[in-house]
Each structure stands twice: as structure tokens, then as C-alpha cells.
Amino acid sequence: MFFPISGAHISPIYLAIVGFLIGILGGFFGVGGSFIAGPALRAVGLDWNFAVGTDLAHIVGKSVVAAKRHRALGNVDLRLGLIMAVGTIGGAECGAQLIQMLKRAGNVNLVVSIVSIAVYVSISTFMIWESRKTLRTQKRKIAAGPIKGPTAKRDHSAFKPTTRAIQRLKIWPMVALPTSGIKAISIWVILLVAFIGGVFSGFLGGGAGYIRMPSMVYVLGIPTHLAVGTDLFEIIISASYGTFTHAVKGNVDILIALVMHTGAAIGAQIGAISTQYFTGPKIRLAFVPLPLIGAAIVIYTLITGHKL
Amino acid sequence: MKPKAAKTLRAFLVELAVYAILVVGYFFLVLHFLGESLHQLEMHHRYTYAGVAILLIVGQAVVLEALTTLLLRLISGRSE
Known about the structure:
The structure holds two protein chains of two kinds. Chain A is built from twelve helices and four strands. By secondary structure, chain A is mainly alpha-helical. In chain A, helix 1 runs antiparallel to helix 2. In chain B, helix 1 (3-44) packs antiparallel against helix 2. Chain B starts with a helix and ends with a helix. Chain B is elongated, with a radius of gyration of 18 Å. Chain B is built from two helices and no strands. By secondary structure, chain B is mainly α. Chains A and B meet through strand 1, helix 3, helix 9 and helix 10 of A and helix 1 and helix 2 of B.
């Protein structure tokens, strides 16, 4: 199929399958999936700028589907999502400026690569430690069989004492998040978490869900299921903003995004529904390979010089 | 395989087949004709194109979500 905006010839079936796979990941983990979509679009000859912008447009659509499904399951905290969207957009702009500064200094590729590898590996290492420790503790506490149904949303974390200390910080203004079960938390903490996610999004590209979702769980103390759903809702706003700015710069082939999204729409629903059958620590443990895939792609790019 | 899981899988496969037929029709009927007009818009009116792009992807998301939910409801209802 010919896509006149980018001038690319790509099989629509290929695009729908890629969208389907990314949709499952997005619905289940609350991530955009740029680390797969980018290379997948590049692999069929789409220019890098179009791959980035088009992927963002597709993320908007996929997140709408997955967030709607998560909302039906009670997994979206709208108030938290709206506050986070403000921080993410601000952070993404700062990250993009940081990239421009490094470009002028002439060492952008090396710095971005090293930072991203360190971040990806640290997240995976921490999450594997925390989720395994939590699962071991739970196993000792629960004598009965596997947790299923609504009780699967009861979240436990080995990092809880630190999270509670962060929640006790009284920096005005405070906000209550009843949907997430938080009586009061400083709005600045939420904005900071979102801002850092946004900086990484602007700095490394993609939606940076691999940073935001764990930060929401460990720093803010949001239950994993709600972190996934709320992150998707937040992505709708921040990715729409990114899509608009990229489209104005001529980096979005919306036809490719629409075709990819036909697969993602069904994949995202499967992913979202599947979260019901897993406890928070299990979702976090399954999340571990995602940042490592990101790190592997960066290492490959660094060694070979070919951008995937 | 448990009977309930088998039923869910069957319903899902039927949904996927019906969905695939509808989507293929959509590729050729809608996207084929939209292509050239969107290309012109992208070349001459970037800001309008950016707005239209977001509306299209959000609109498609809402429609497809409703469609898949309806399909699943119809298929699950019929198989009971």
C-alpha cells in the first residue's frame, strides 16, 4: 500500500500486526511501545523523523482504546492523570531543549546512549529486586491459592516505607487522590515525577512509560493497576501534544498511524483485560524485560552505528 | 482446555475474523480515498493537518473500541 504523505510503500498487514503486538504491551503495561514501533517502522524503510512522529500519533489512538477499557475496570485516576500531563509536557519541552544543547556541544549521541542504558538497566534491576521480594513476602503471608478477581488489585510493595515517607511530605498545595487510595500528597511531588518522565521522553524519545509507570508505583504509591490505566490516560494528552508539534514539523504520516491503530485497537483491549488476572508485583516483574529491550537497542546502535 | 476458556477463545477468534473483514474494507474504501486529500492538507495547511490528524486517530479509536465491544457482546451472547 502506498502512503503518499511519507512516500513509503508498506504492507498494511505488517502495520496492523505491529500495532496489535504493541497494543497488547501498551494495554498491559501502560507504555507507548516506541522502542518496538520505532525500529519496526524503520525496518520497512520509513524515515526516522516520520517513524517518531507517526508512532506518537498511533500511541494516541491506542491509548484512547486501552484507557477506555481500563476506565471501565476502575483503573484510571483522572485527577492524577491531568496533573501529570502538565508536568510531562513541561518536562518533554525541557528534554528537547537539552538535546539541542548537547547537539550544539557535539556529543549528543554518546551522552544520550550512556544515560539511557544506565536508566534502563537501573529500572529493570530495581524492579526485579522489588517485585521478587514482594512476591516472596506475599507467598509467606498467603497460605491459600492464587489471588484472582478484584483482590488482584490489592497492591503490595517492598518499597512501601519509602513511598509512605514521600507521601508524608507536607509541601503545599496538597491534593487528595481517593481513586488511588491516597488521602493527601503534595502536588509538587506528582509534578516532579511527571516532569522527570517528560524530560526522559523529550531526551530519549518515545513516551517514557518505562520510567513513569514504575515512578507512579514506587514514588507516588499508586497501585500498579491504577498506575497502568492512569499512565495511559496521561499518555493520551501528552502524546496528542507531541503529535501536534511533530505534525506541524511535517513528521507525521497519519495514514500509517491509522492503519497501525486498527491492530492496536484490539491488542490494547486484550492487554487491558489481561491485567485483571495478575497481581501488581507480577505485572511489575513481567515489566522488567521492557527497559532491557530498550537498553539492547541502544547498545546495538552504539556498536554498529545503525539507528534501529 | 477448560470449557469456559475454550468458549472465550472461540468468541475472540470469531471477533478477530469479523473485525479483520471490516478493517480490510476500511483500508480500501476510506483510507484509499482519504490519502490524497490528507496529503494536500499536509503540504499546504500544516496546522489544520495537525488538528485533523489528532481528530482522525481519536475518532477512529472511539469507533473501533465501540465496534470491538459490540462484536464481542454479540458473539458472546450468541454462543451462550
